[in-house]
């Protein structure tokens, strides 16, 4: 499934590195729109890393699918690992950007929490590549995530949004006052994440049809209700 991936900022160049665009970039006619070129590379690389992991993905394949070259990819991202970090940054930037557009501050606390949980469920279900990237990075014990200050910065507003909704709920008397906002965020993520990451094995083991519209809607409502009841006074 293709996703629109917003490009991360172009990395700073090492001192003394030539600023000239590679000859094959000029030949391809892509030098007029480097941002589009980077976005195309990131979109294809996202699918490749999600499907094959860091070890299995090949720069040659990414170059072929984007009609660019290895030289151009290295020009923009410096290395395979650098491209992988940029893919992670773009993936987190996209979900956090859309979260910010929910305008939870304009909703009463329980409605805001329901909206956030439902969004998380819907987004992760519709973007399995994001789940696979996170699973792959966990296999690396967060090694490449740790290299990015951008991702850590992106996740600060996510926790702040949960905390703001929860605090308003406590102040209004709707929520109990002994829930940690980070733990609440983890619980929301865990329920929605498992719904995608384990759906195939769970479906086979227990003989449940999880992909039908009715099953998707029922699971969505169940997760929303579990979270709301967890914090409700």
UniProtKB/TrEMBL annotation:
Residues 1-35 are annotated as: Disordered. Pfam families: TetR_C_29, TetR_N. Residues 35-95 form the HTH tetR-type domain. Transmembrane segments: none annotated. One of its GO terms (molecular function) is DNA binding. SUPFAM superfamilies: Homeodomain-like (SSF46689), Tetracyclin repressor-like, C-terminal domain (SSF48498). It comes from the Bacteria. InterPro entries: Homeodomain-like_sf (IPR009057), HTH-type_TetR-like_transc_reg (IPR050109), HTH_TetR (IPR001647), NicS_C (IPR041474), Tet_transcr_reg_TetR-rel_C_sf (IPR036271). Keywords: DNA-binding. Residues 58-77 bind DNA. This is TetR family transcriptional regulator. It comes from Ideonella alba.
């Amino acid at each position: 499934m293709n996703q629109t991936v917003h490009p991360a900022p172009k990395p700073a160049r090492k001192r003394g590195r030539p600023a000239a665009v590679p000859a094959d970039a000029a030949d391809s006619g892509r030098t007029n729109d480097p941002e589009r070129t980077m976005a195309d590379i990131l979109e294809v690389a996202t699918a490749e890393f999600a499907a094959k992991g860091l070890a299995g993905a090949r720069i040659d394949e990414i170059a072929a699918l984007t009609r660019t070259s290895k030289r151009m990819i290295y020009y923009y991202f410096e290395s395979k690992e650098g491209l992988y970090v940029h893919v992670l940054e773009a993936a987190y930037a996209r979900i956090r950007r859309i979260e910010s557009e929910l305008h939870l501050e304009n909703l009463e606390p329980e409605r805001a929490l329901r909206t956030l949980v439902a969004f998380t469920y819907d987004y992760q279900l519709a973007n399995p590549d994001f789940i696979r990237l996170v699973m792959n990075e966990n296999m690396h014990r967060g090694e490449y995530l740790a290299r990015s200050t951008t991702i850590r910065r992106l996740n600060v507003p996510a926790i702040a949004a949960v905390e703001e909704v929860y605090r308003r709920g406590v102040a209004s008397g709707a929520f109990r006052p002994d829930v940690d906002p980070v733990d609440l965020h983890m619980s929301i993520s865990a329920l929605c994440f498992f719904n995608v990451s384990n759906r195939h094995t769970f479906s086979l083991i227990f003989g449940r049809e999880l992909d039908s519209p009715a099953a998707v809607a029922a699971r969505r409502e169940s997760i929303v209700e579990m979270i709301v009841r967890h914090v409700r006074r």
